[in-house]
């Protein structure tokens, strides 16, 4: 692997690549380009990339445990999504009072609930919130007051959840009960200007938290007590998220964005990378139980 990374070969670059998801069911990585309104699938078997155009901005897809297809977060709320054949069915718009908001980032916990944040699509107003979509398809607001919601992930035992306000350079830690109640919100880590802004996150099999650095050109690995373990530099400034993948969960795939950058100067901006994680393995991604 050249340096500690390689670029997944494909013709185009993502305006705002996000939401990478490992699917053992498909032996593939799924991810989205939020602004260009696409869902992508990269096959680990034959290295092919397929794409599906979406009717509006899409922040993420999460697989369903007991049904085919996905739950997806779009501009106008939560949807059921099937790709082959294509079908898109609305579940709920959590914020009809804010048509300028959109869903931005999400993860499913081991109980099959989806935790997803909203944000002002124009990144002007501080009106983002954090929601929990339960397997019965009910949704509730659990926190609010965010500029740019990002990166929810969970501790190894899932008794804690990490959630980010990228606009404030701050990652929060909540206590998380088995019943899905959040409490004891506190600042877990605050980025310096040199670090960029914290974006997507994931937790590995040793309980360390991996963070993507928007305008920081790297991913980093942190202990649960917020001590930096390592950094992996990448040739794109705006790194957005990552997922461990493969049958052994020992391959790390990282998304990035070309939004706001000179593509002639930043030739790798918006690429999908595979990164050498130094022997670290990930955890199977959560799926939605509804």
Automatic annotation (TrEMBL):
Where is the signal peptide, in residue numbers? none
Instruction: Show where the SMP-30/Gluconolactonase/LRE-like region domain sits.
Output: 16-257
InterPro entries, sorted = 6-blade_b-propeller_TolB-like, SGL, SMP-30
Superkingdom of origin: Bacteria
Instruction: Tell me the protein family, please.
Output: Belongs to the SMP-30/CGR1 family.
Protein name per its UniProtKB record: SMP-30/gluconolactonase/LRE family protein
Species whose genome carries this gene: Steroidobacter gossypii
């Amino acid at each position: 692997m050249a340096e500690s990374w390689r670029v997944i070969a494909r013709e185009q670059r993502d305006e705002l690549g996000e939401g990478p998801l490992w699917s053992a069911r498909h032996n593939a990585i799924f991810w989205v380009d939020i602004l260009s309104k696409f869902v992508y699938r990269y096959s680990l078997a034959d290295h092919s990339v397929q794409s599906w155009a979406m009717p509006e901005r899409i922040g993420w897809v999460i697989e369903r445990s007991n049904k085919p297809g996905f739950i997806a977060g779009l501009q106008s709320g939560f949807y059921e999504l099937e790709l082959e054949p294509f079908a898109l069915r609305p579940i709920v718009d959590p914020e009809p009072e804010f048509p300028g908001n959109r869903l931005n980032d999400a993860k499913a916990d081991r109980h099959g609930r989806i935790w997803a944040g909203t944000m002002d699509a124009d990144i002007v107003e501080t009106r983002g919130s954090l929601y929990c979509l339960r397997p019965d398809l009910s949704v509730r607001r659990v926190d609010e007051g965010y500029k740019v919601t990002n990166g929810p992930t969970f501790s190894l035992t899932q008794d804690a959840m990490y959630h980010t306000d990228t606009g404030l350079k701050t990652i929060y830690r909540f206590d998380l009960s088995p019943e899905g109640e959040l409490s004891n919100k506190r600042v877990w880590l605050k980025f310096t200007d040199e670090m960029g802004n914290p974006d997507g996150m994931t937790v590995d099999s040793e309980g360390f938290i991996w963070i993507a650095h928007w305008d920081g050109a790297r991913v980093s690995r942190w202990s649960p007590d917020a001590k930096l373990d390592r950094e992996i530099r990448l040739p794109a400034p705006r790194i957005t998220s990552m997922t461990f993948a493969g049958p052994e969960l020992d391959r790390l795939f990282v998304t990035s964005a070309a939004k706001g950058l000179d593509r002639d100067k930043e030739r790798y901006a918006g690429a999908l990378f595979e990164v050498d994680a130094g022997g670290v393995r990930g955890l199977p991604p959560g799926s939605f139980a509804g």
